[in-house]
């Protein structure tokens, strides 16, 4: 038998249902942010995530939605950045705040199974050596990629952006994008602004091959908390302007 949710979760779920009050289309984004904060059941500062299903078929490369977005209010998380660089770029990475910097020595550590970092950045000239690490880094979502801005000669800028709240996103096999937009301790305004930034990024990267309704479903949720449905028509109107 599957495990059941506890009393706190059941009470939180009831509050979500009361907020919906029979609305099939979900809540307005502002209200959804309020409810998801109020129904967090964790005793710690839980992460708030957005889960948005897009009208794309990720089995086709031209419909894959992938990129990065800088959240105006950060993620509330300390991000450990590893940089695969050499020469003068090593100092540039260190000065920008990278946690681990190296070339062949860092590659050797990763080959031995070390992956204690959250984001990897590499200069293009290092990718011939970093490429073989794909079997280790790929499954963990750590492989540097030009589309996400993590393969670049502008290492200092990339490190500062990642440290400052840039997050990567990509559709999974079901066409869903999962993005952390902050912490429960964030104000409703800060979470709303971060959500708007994510929506704008998805709109900008809408594949030309995508047909029909682009935003299919959207939910906010917290670590261990119930999901809160968002009215996708209202979500699609979000802007950071």
Automatic annotation (TrEMBL):
Gene Ontology terms: biological process: regulation of translation; translation
GO CC field: large ribosomal subunit
GO molecular function, one term: structural constituent of ribosome
Keywords noted in UniProt: Repressor, Ribonucleoprotein, Ribosomal protein, RNA-binding, rRNA-binding, Translation regulation, tRNA-binding
Function: Binds directly to 23S rRNA. The L1 stalk is quite mobile in the ribosome, and is involved in E site tRNA release.
HAMAP family linked: Ribosomal_uL1_B
Quaternary structure note: Part of the 50S ribosomal subunit.
Family statement drawn from the similarity comment of this UniProt entry: Belongs to the universal ribosomal protein uL1 family.
Protein's name according to its UniProt entry: Large ribosomal subunit protein uL1
Taxonomic lineage: Bacteria, Bacillati, Candidatus Dormiibacterota, Candidatus Dormibacteria, Candidatus Dormibacterales
Name of the encoding gene: rplA
């Amino acid at each position: 038998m599957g495990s059941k949710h506890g009393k706190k979760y059941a009470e939180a779920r009831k509050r979500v249902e009361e907020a919906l009050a029979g609305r099939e289309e979900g809540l307005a984004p502002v209200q959804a942010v309020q409810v998801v904060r109020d129904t967090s059941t964790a005793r710690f500062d839980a992460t708030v995530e957005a889960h948005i299903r897009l009208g794309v078929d990720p089995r086709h490369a031209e419909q894959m939605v992938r990129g990065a977005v800088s959240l105006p209010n950060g993620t509330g998380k300390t991000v450990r950045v590893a940089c695969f660089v050499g020469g003068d770029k090593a100092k540039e990475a260190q000065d920008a705040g990278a946690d681990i910097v190296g070339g062949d020595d860092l590659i050797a550590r990763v080959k031995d199974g070390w992956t204690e970092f959250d984001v990897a950045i590499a200069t293009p000239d290092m990718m011939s050596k970093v490429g073989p690490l794909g079997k280790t880094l790929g499954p963990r979502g750590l492989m540097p990629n030009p589309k996400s801005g993590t393969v670049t000669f502008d290492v200092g800028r990339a490190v500062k952006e990642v440290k400052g709240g840039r997050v990567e996103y990509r559709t999974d096999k079901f066409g869903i994008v999962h993005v952390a937009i902050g912490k429960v301790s964030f104000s409703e305004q800060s979470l709303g602004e971060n959500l708007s930034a994510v929506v704008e990024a998805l709109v900008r990267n809408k594949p030309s091959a995508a047909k029909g309704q682009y935003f299919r479903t959207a939910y906010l949720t917290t670590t261990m908390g119930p999901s809160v449905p968002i009215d996708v028509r209202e979500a699609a109107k979000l802007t950071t302007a």
